[in-house]
């Protein structure tokens, strides 16, 4: 949130934009005005029409009605090349660079096919641009050796070198470290200081308030409000966030980053009015979580969700390691716990990201976060635990029993569950009815199949119960699951994996791509599961989410667990440093 900017003529004006697809109106009479010298944040829940709107600006599709004016003239943007010609560049969430080529080669791609690139001239322009915006990029380095944040800088440079005056950043911080996100914020400020207009699409309300000069909110494909620079400058962070959430959902917000009350599970102690303690039941820690989850709690005096007689306490034998803040070796964490999940020296072969010597424990009722930049082995780790990937070495134990030799179905039946981040590709069969998807991991098994015959009535009864229990919003249980919204598909996955005797649940980026309301509901389900005694492993690239939910946070980098920290006041700094390799 920055100081109010003087009014300037728009770079781009979108007026009365309407876009329809079969059976749905993605945008209806939407206005969006982009001005020089502003970071214009575009917010809205899933399905609000954000991507469709900026897709028309980027030339990916055309409006059915309305006008787009550039520099005061009405124009038709009928291709991405045309958008670039009008000075509109787009940086997508996933890098579009070629990893095997150098920075310079990537910058030269997309030029005139009939003319050899002027490499010396391009290097000179690159160095001048880097000086102007205050970053350093080696033109000869191979892109594959760069961090995600550095690759993003290269993509921004590519857009600028092509003359972009409007820069669209699509979920730009989703895969960055905290330091990378901070660097991007600094870079955006430098760009708008040079007169560029930046469109930032994000699900993170904190980022909207931090970086935005102007915030537009879409709901159900329509404009529902805009908070301009003057209004933003007059609001504190809490008030600005409350207003954004009111516009997005029509309800008041408690907080963008989850208030303390949302960081407690059902078993948290009320210190202002503690429950009475009887003589027969002496005061002792609960076997479930006894304190407040989240950044700032006194984690060093809290137990790690162990049975009361096996409370883990740091001691001189398990000191904080110098130079690692409050980081412990994975083998030292919960050494006295009766672990629900125990992983010892796990190694997995993979051509892209092998896993090496991973050890950790998760206790009943604990939420252990796995932080790290996407692509550092998180998916391989989750799939190995779930039985979808062979293990080269090491052991996986569920409640003390080895399960490494069991297949997916057997692990699922024993209570080891996996909520994949690939909801439609891996987690469900899009063309199958919701009811069948809710029993997808139990096909052929009782009570839903008997003697090879499908018991449709039993499946339907089961599906209706889960639809009610997990608030899955669907026209009918026979509706193909692929026709549901992302939030409802995620609820279906949660319902399937949390139903029955779940003991350990692996949540892989469970709120990725969800709007704030569905993300909050998903986090609440995870807390509720932990409160019931489930051991939860939460894999996420969103550090704010991990800080809000987890008891401890492990950091994965290059296929290894490089540290585990208590979620206390030092967690943010320690995790950020370990993610970046500092």
From TrEMBL:
Entry annotated with the keyword Transcription: no
Can you name one GO molecular function term for this protein? ATP binding
List compositional bias (Basic and acidic residues) regions by residue number: 255-267
Q: What is this protein called?
A: ABC transporter ATP-binding protein
The UniProt family comment states: Belongs to the ABC transporter superfamily.
Q: Which PANTHER family match?
A: CARBOHYDRATE TRANSPORT ATP-BINDING PROTEIN MG119-RELATED, GUANOSINE IMPORT ATP-BINDING PROTEIN NUPO
Q: Where is this region: Disordered?
A: 255-293
What keywords were assigned to this record?
A: ATP-binding, Nucleotide-binding
Q: Where are the transmembrane segments?
A: none
PROSITE patterns, per the entry: ABC_TRANSPORTER_1, ABC_TRANSPORTER_2
Instruction: Read off the SMART domains from this record.
Output: AAA
Q: Specify the ABC transporter domain's residue ranges.
A: 12-245, 328-578
């Amino acid at each position: 949130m920055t100081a109010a900017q003087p009014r300037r003529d728009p770079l781009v004006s979108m007026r009365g934009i309407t876009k329809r697809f079969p059976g749905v109106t993605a945008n209806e009479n939407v206005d969006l005005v982009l001005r020089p010298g502003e970071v214009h944040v575009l917010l809205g829940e899933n399905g609000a029409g954000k991507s469709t709107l900026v897709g028309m600006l980027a030339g990916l599709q055309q409006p059915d009605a309305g006008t787009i004016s550039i520099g005061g003239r009405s124009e038709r943007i009928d291709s991405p090349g045309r958008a670039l010609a009008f000075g509109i560049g787009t940086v997508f969430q996933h890098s579009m660079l070629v990893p095997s080529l150098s920075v310079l080669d990537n910058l030269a791609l997309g030029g005139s096919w009939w003319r050899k690139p002027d490499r010396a001239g391009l290097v000179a322009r690159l160095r001048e641009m880097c000086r102007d915006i205050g970053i350093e990029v080696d033109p000869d380095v191979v892109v594959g050796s760069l961090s995600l944040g550095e690759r993003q800088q290269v993509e921004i440079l590519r857009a600028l070198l092509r003359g972009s005056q409007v820069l669209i950043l699509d979920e730009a911080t989703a895969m960055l470290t905290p330091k990378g996100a901070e660097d991007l914020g600094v870079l955006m400020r430098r760009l708008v200081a040079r007169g560029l207009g930046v469109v930032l699409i994000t699900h993170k309300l904190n980022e909207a308030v931090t970086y935005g000069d102007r915030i537009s909110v879409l709901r159900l494909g329509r404009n529902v409000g805009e908070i301009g620079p003057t209004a933003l400058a007059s609001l504190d962070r809490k008030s600005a966030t409350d207003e954004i959430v009111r516009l997005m959902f029509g309800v008041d917000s408690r907080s963008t980053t989850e208030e303390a009350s949302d960081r407690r599970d059902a078993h948290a102690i009320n210190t202002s009015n503690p429950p009475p303690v009887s003589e027969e039941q002496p005061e002792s820690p609960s076997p479930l979580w006894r304190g407040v989850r989240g950044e700032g709690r006194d984690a060093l005096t809290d137990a790690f969700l162990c049975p009361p007689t096996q409370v883990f306490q740091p001691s001189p034998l398990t000191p904080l390691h110098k130079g690692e803040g409050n980081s412990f070796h994975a083998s030292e964490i919960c050494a006295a716990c009766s672990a629900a999940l125990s992983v010892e020296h796990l190694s997995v072969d993979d051509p892209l990201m092998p896993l090496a010597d991973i050890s950790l424990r998760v206790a009943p009722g604990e939420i252990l976060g796995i932080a790290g930049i996407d692509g550092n082995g998180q998916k391989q780790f989750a799939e190995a635990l779930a039985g979808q990937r062979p293990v080269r070495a090491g052991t996986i134990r569920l409640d003390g029993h080895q399960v490494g030799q069991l297949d997916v179905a057997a692990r699922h039946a024993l209570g080891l569950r996996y909520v994949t981040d690939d909801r439609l590709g891996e987690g469900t069969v899009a063309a199958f009815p919701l009811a069948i998807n809710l029993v997808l991991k139990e096909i052929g098994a009782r009570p839903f199949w008997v003697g090879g015959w499908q018991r449709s009535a039993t499946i339907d009864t089961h599906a209706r119960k889960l639809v009610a229990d997990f608030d899955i919003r669907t026209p009918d249980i026979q509706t193909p699951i692929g026709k549901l919204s992302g939030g409802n598909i995620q609820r279906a996955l949660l319902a399937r994996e949390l139903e029955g005797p779940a003991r350990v649940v692996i949540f892989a980026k469970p709120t990725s791509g969800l709007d704030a309301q569905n993300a909050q509901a998903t986090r609440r389900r995870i807390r509720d599961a932990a409160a019931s005694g489930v051991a939860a492993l939460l894999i996420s690239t969103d550090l704010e989410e991990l800080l809000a939910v987890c008891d401890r946070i492990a950091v994965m980098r290059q296929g290894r667990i490089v540290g585990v920290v208590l979620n206390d006041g030092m967690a943010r700094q320690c995790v950020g440093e370990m993610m970046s390799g500092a």
